[in-house]
Every structure is written in structure tokens, then in C-alpha cells.
Write a structure and sequence with these properties.
There is one protein chain. By secondary structure, this protein is α/β, with parallel strands linked by helices. It has a six-stranded mixed β-sheet. Helices cover 32% and strands 25% of the residues. The chain contains six helices and ten strands, in the order E-E-E-H-E-E-H-E-H-H-H-E-H-E-E-E.
Amino acid sequence: MSTGHNILSLDAARGISEYLPHIPLDFALGEGDFALIEVLGPRRGTAFADLCVGLVPMADGQVRFLGRDWSQVPQAHADALRGHIGRLFRLPLRADTPDVASRILLARLHHTRQPEAELRAEASGLALRFGLPGLPAGPTRLLSEPDLLRAACVRAFLGRPRLVILELPLAAQQDNLISALLEVGAEARGQGAAVLWLAGIGPALRSRAIRPSHRLRLGDAGLVPFRLPARVA
């Protein structure tokens, strides 16, 4: 589905992190691409996501987002660039967040000129699609862990980001949430976004119903293509 315009590219990239492989990584995502990467350990997945968004110091190589080399972008500009990235963190929302709705809207309000009323309407629509009754209100203590994860999914896709990075916890691989993420992700890709899905090894993500443009594994050998076993239905 890629149009040939890279949104994210790693060129012989080697980040300074104890959780990343010590070999150069080469990888590219274009508009409309969907990469599903199995990661051996959640900390490695988070470190790789941090590398992609320019938060890991570089030993060698380059990481570019929308054609800009993170290491060459001034900090203020880098923060603005990250405003075009939606991210579902492995630990989605802090337990002491006093207002879930404000946390969902914060980045979009800061990085875009879209009116708050429009953002709230978009967030409410996404919330329904992820199985919530509407945009959550009140502190995190009023929401269950599954609902906090759904709220974090809303935040990741809000505001039409160019790149969406999903660090999906293995325990969250429920069929209904997987289906919603695939559906909303497909619509985002249809609008020119790229989706990078990082997850632990689990049966839900090995279904042949999931058809990424890139299926890889991130381990000590770096990023390597991964094919489903023939016996998997």
C-alpha cells in the first residue's frame, strides 16, 4: 500500500541503549505501510520505539522521520515533529492522572490548531470504536485497566498522526481490541499514515487474518523477516 514516500527510515542505525541490538538496523515505512514487529522483551520494544522517535542517542547511522534526521533537528523542532506521531505506550496512562480526557487531548491541543471542540468530537468517536461509552472523564482510578488501555488507543490515533507506534502489552491481545486497532489503523493508513506495531510473541498476532506489509522480528540478530509457520490457520 506504500506510495514510496518514506515516513520513517532507519539507515544503518545503531542506538546507544542496553536494550537494542548492537548491530546496525535498516528499516523503512512509507505512507500506508503497516509493520508488525515481534519483540523479544517489552523493554526492547520500548527502546526501539524511542529510537524511532529520536529519543535514543546514536552511535552510528541515521533515523529520519518525514525526511528529517532526528540527530540534526533542534530540540524545539524535534518536539514539534513528534507532534505528528501517535504512540500507544507499553504503560499507557499514569495511575495518578487526574483527568483522563485532558491527558488524551493534551498533545493534540499543544501541537495543532484544531479547535478543542473538534478534537473532543473526534476523540469521542474514537472512544466508541475502541469500546468505551464516550470520551472518559475523571481520574484514572475510575477506569479499569482495559478501559485505560482503550483510552490510550484513542490518544494514539487522535489528530490524524503521520506515524502511529503501538506498543501493545501481551496481556492486551484481546480479539475485540485487536480488531478495533486493525480497523482504525487501516483507516489511518488510507489517509497516508504509517503504523508500526510492536508486540510480544502471542497467538493473536500470528493470525493470517492480520496482513501487515512488513512482518519482522527484533532480536539480538537485529530486524529480520518473520514468516508464519505453515501450520498456523
